[in-house]
Amino acid sequence: MIRTADGLGQGKLAAELNVSRTYLCQIENGRKQPSLSFLKQFAKQFSVPLPLLVFGEQTQQEDNKIFDELREIFAKVLVLRTSQTKKQEEISLEESLNEELH
To answer: Has residue 63 got a pLDDT over 80?
Structure first.
């Protein structure tokens, strides 16, 4: 737990975050879901990125995996578009030549 690792008591952290000690205790014990404003304050207090605080360490790895998959998809789309553009250019050139011959 971040709070105890930093040596902060519930009362002191609750005061710094401008929430009641009871509210903080309920969040820590899983009896209450923290509000987004609380999570933002908590993340700022401990200099932790909010997504890391909410989703955990795997988020960056999962994000990297998703970005890699998106890069592959975009690369395939680019290849297809390039291929389609070349085909369209070839068709246009062929049509132009046919028009000139007739």
So the answer is: no
User: What is the rounded CA–CA span in Å between residue 44 and residue 87?
Assistant: 54
Is the separation of the CB atoms in 34 and 43 below 8 Å? no
Fold classification of 2-55 is: 434 Repressor (Amino-terminal Domain) (1.10.260)
Residue with tokens 């690792």: 5
Inter-residue contact 52 to 59 (CB < 8 Å): yes
Q: Which tokens go with 87?
A: 């085909």
The answer to whether 43 and 50 are in contact (CB under 8 A) is: yes
Structure token digits, residue 65: 């995996």
Q: Can you give the pTM of this predicted structure? A: 0.51
- Side chain identity, residue 49: P
